[in-house]
Amino acid sequence: MNKIQIAIAEDQVLFAQGLTRLLNQRKDMEVVFHAVNGRELLEKLTNHNVNVILMDLKMPVLDGRETTVQVKKAYPDMCIIALSMYNENAFITDMVEAGANGFLSKDTPIEEVVEAIHEVVKSGYYFNARVSKAMVGELIRTKRVKPVFYQSNLTQREIEILIKICEEKTRQEIAEELFISTRTFDGHREALMQKTGTRSTAGLVLFAIRNGLVNYGMEDSH
């Protein structure tokens, strides 16, 4: 069984050490390195294969948001879960727009952290009920939700795929349901991100919410 390779970017060393110990107890996970700031993370990524990054929001030298943007530019398929003590709605939507695949509070139980890691690897994003509602609430507060979904330049197939992504279907499941190859699905997803200006699958979900295509997160889903 291939282990999920994890990196932790966190300037609070004791917190990072505790998280590392708990995750390394899992048979299917391995923390390959810890970085105390974004710059160190970017340097270490050049020498390590990583599937998931647990990214602190507030770090010295290079903070979590800017680091997320740079990681997504260099490694578009990297899964990033933002970790923060700040639960304000604006922080959550800001990190997703930067490219994060999910968001967890630092007081989240380890069982949910494990679930989130599995979910971002499986479907490309993870939001618990509170975070989902926070995203929708922030978009409504800032009047960034449109009452009608504007298709713009999206094709009908791209819209179908976007809806299925919002339904938390996996890459393989979507390909089978639409009778396309996984490679064709990857091409459509890449086109979706380019057309919508998003950096991750989570960003696509946020785009769909903002444009009224789905009402994701208004009811508990995790």
Mean pLDDT: 85
Under the CATH scheme, the architecture of the largest domain is 3-Layer(aba) Sandwich
Within CATH, the superfamily of the largest domain carries the name Response regulator
List low-pLDDT spans. Answer: 217-222
At the fold tier of CATH, the topology name of the largest domain is Rossmann fold
Structural class call reads alpha/beta
User: What is the CATH C level class of the largest domain, in words?
Assistant: Alpha Beta
Beta fraction of the residues?
5-15%
Query: Termini distance?
Result: 26 Å
Count of individual domains: 2
Q: What does the overall shape look like?
A: globular
Query: How are the strands of the largest sheet arranged?
Result: 2-1-3-4-5
Number of helices: 10
Calculate Rg over CA atoms: 17 Å
Tell how many strands the DSSP assignment holds.
5
